[in-house]
Specification:
The complex is a heterodimer of chains A (314) and B (246). With 314 residues, chain A is an alpha/beta fold. Chain A has 9 helices and 15 strands. In chain A, helix 3 packs across helix 4 and helix 5 packs parallel to helix 9. The chains are: A alpha/beta (314), B alpha/beta (246). Chains A and B meet through helix 3, helix 4, strand 5, strand 6 and strand 7 of A and helix 3, helix 4, strand 9, strand 10 and strand 11 of B.
Chain lengths: 314, 246
């Protein structure tokens, strides 16, 4: 058995890259990582610690061209005889994995949240996180796209070899005019801690309190749909059924009632804290910890408590 | 410009999700089906806006049974010119994509639009699969789409940011929030929809690459532990010692 993991290494090795490599290792067999761009060789070699036997890197392309990337991954899969190809279920996977699935006639399992079961089926989120489905792949080659934060990276090996590889793929038909990357923000789907707020904050001018708590925790910020719709917060922060689905370790919901559509996007969170003035808010039924109180009183207190906790050496 | 908009049915967002037949089938009892919101709000409406400024035709296509004619009529009421239903159960993304690609091949569309994903299966697979089948470029999760002659300028979400790209037609684009605003069909549209063409096409034979074997529901949370709002030190301590998340 041969496993191929595609990682995006352009901004270093992020946690989701390590998750996919460790996941691939758990499947057993020989594990090859394929990547593109100009990441340091010594950095790529550390993927060996997470289970890679070898890293293949194509330095002739940047990895931002989906059609090129599809060809590169297909060529690498062919070269190592991969029977399983793994992605992190991010925006690159959403652009590339379906193309690869058709090209290789390989069944694609999107949004996997666990290792294959004894019967070989793979568990995925369906109905926007309201349920799970078990998917069987009927083709010889499988493609699995793993939801970020579903699998803990395991570090127990040593550095591995890094080799050059190229598919000599011609450029695709999409011309990139510009790329904007927000500085210093934690991408929401990858964040382990998320502080999220809703209409209970009464206005965008009050978000400073939310950001203070997020920064004290080292958390990403998110919001409910109404808040994004009325323009208090940017759309990319909207979590829920029609926004981003996330599964952080900790989700703190402030002034969000907990409508079913919102819960769908966050109920994969390991621990949920709800802060609300309404004792009947549905979020209290979905939360592990609840605080019945006014966000304007509770938030500064919580931020202080977090700062005190961090200052005590945690 | 000939635009093909792919629509899928999905349960209304407030539907109770349950399963029957030993958890192998979605329980449709009492479920109201709607057009998948991303397909309707963004892909279909943007297609209509393009048609209104540049002229052309908007065709909607779905893979489904006669029961899905209701959502097709709604798409026609919102303003699509005609509709195609591939008469088959959309068993998996690959099956669905190949059916649509086969139809698109023989009817040469300039632009194929889909929503970014369905809210029931969330795979985000069909659009990319159509693109590869047609050998078209595919711009995923676009939040803005402008047409200049035979070129599209698009904004799309990428890992950790936003990208502006240009692509020549023909192309496949999956549409995300920001692309357009929802439209409510008016009475005139609803009346007109009754007489618009809805062509039913037999499916082609396709191997299924994946099968949903069964479904499970998440474990219900045990009761919520309420914390005194004046004692946030306690909450922090619980998150550290008990929940072990900070």
């Amino acid at each position: 058995m041969s496993v191929l993991v595609y990682i995006n290494s352009n901004s270093g090795l992020n946690k989701s890259a390590l998750e996919t490599v460790s996941y691939g290792k758990k499947l057993g067999g020989n594990l090859t990582v394929i990547t593109a761009g100009s990441a340091d060789e010594s950095k790529l070699a550390t993927l060996g610690k997470y289970g890679a036997n070898k890293v293949l890197v194509d330095r002739s392309i940047q990895g931002d061209d989906d059609q090129q990337l599809t060809q590169l991954i297909a060529a690498a899969a062919d070269s190592v005889g991969a029977t399983t190809i793994i992605f992190s279920h991010d925006l690159t996977a959403k652009a590339v994995a379906p193309r690869l699935s058709v090209r290789l006639k390989a069944g694609l399992v999107s949004g996997a949240i666990a290792l294959p079961g004894d019967d070989g089926t793979i568990k995925v989120n369906v109905f926007s996180g309201k349920a799970f489905g078990s998917v069987k792949v009927n083709s010889t080659v499988k493609i699995i796209s793993l939801l970020p934060n579903s699998f803990q990276p395991v570090e127990d090996g040593s550095d591995c070899a890094v080799e050059s590889f190229s598919a000599n793929a011609p450029a695709g038909l999409i011309k990139v005019l510009s790329t904007k990357k927000p500085e210093g923000e934690i991408p929401l789907p990858e964040a382990e801690l998320v502080v999220s707020a809703g209409r209970g904050m009464k206005g965008p001018e009050n978000w400073g309190m939310v950001e203070d708590l997020a920064s004290a925790l080292g958390a990403a910020t998110a919001c409910s749909r109404p808040v994004a719709d009325i323009g208090w917060r940017p759309h990319h922060e909207h979590v829920g059924q029609t926004g981003v689905a996330i599964r952080p370790n900790l989700y703190i919901a402030i002034g969000i009632s907990g409508a079913i559509q919102h819960l769908a996007g966050v109920n994969g969170s390991k621990v949920i804290v709800a802060i609300n003035t309404d004792a009947e808010a549905p979020f209290f039924k979905a939360a592990d910890y609840g605080v019945l109180g006014d966000a304007f009183d509770v938030l500064p207190r919580l931020t202080e408590a977090v700062k005190k906790f961090k200052a005590s050496g945690h | 410009m000939k635009i093909l908009v792919c629509i899928s049915k999905s349960p209304d967002t407030t539907s109770k999700i349950a399963f029957v037949d030993q958890n192998t089938k979605f329980d449709e009892n009492g479920v109201q089906y709607i057009i998948n919101p991303y397909d309707e709000w963004y892909a279909l409406v943007r297609a209509l806006e393009i048609k209104e400024t540049l002229g052309g035709d908007v065709t909607v296509i779905t893979v489904g049974s006669v029961a899905d004619d209701a959502i097709i009529r709604k798409a026609l009421a919102i303003g699509a010119d005609d509709a195609v239903r591939i008469d088959a159960d959309p068993t998996d993304a690959y099956y669905t994509a190949v059916q649509i690609a086969e139809y698109a091949k023989t009817n040469s569309f300039d632009l194929v639009l889909t929503g970014k994903e369905t809210i029931n299966y969330n795979g985000s697979q069909v659009a990319g699969m159509i693109a590869e089948s047609l050998n078209f470029p595919f711009v995923s999760l676009a939040t803005k789409l402008d047409v200049n002659g035979s070129t599209l300028t698009l904004e799309r979400e990428i890992v950790g940011g936003l990208q502006v790209v240009e692509v020549s037609l023909p192309a496949v684009v999956s549409c995300a929030k920001g692309m357009a605003e929802q439209r409510i069909p008016n009475m005139r549209g609803i009346m007109a929809a009754r007489t618009k063409s809805l062509q039913v096409v037999a499916p082609v034979s396709v191997d299924l690459l994946t099968t949903y074997v069964n479904y499970t529901m998440p474990n219900a949370k045990s009761s919520c532990k309420m914390i005194d709002p004046t004692n946030m030190d306690e909450l922090v301590a619980l998150l550290h010692n008990e929940a072990k998340v900070i």
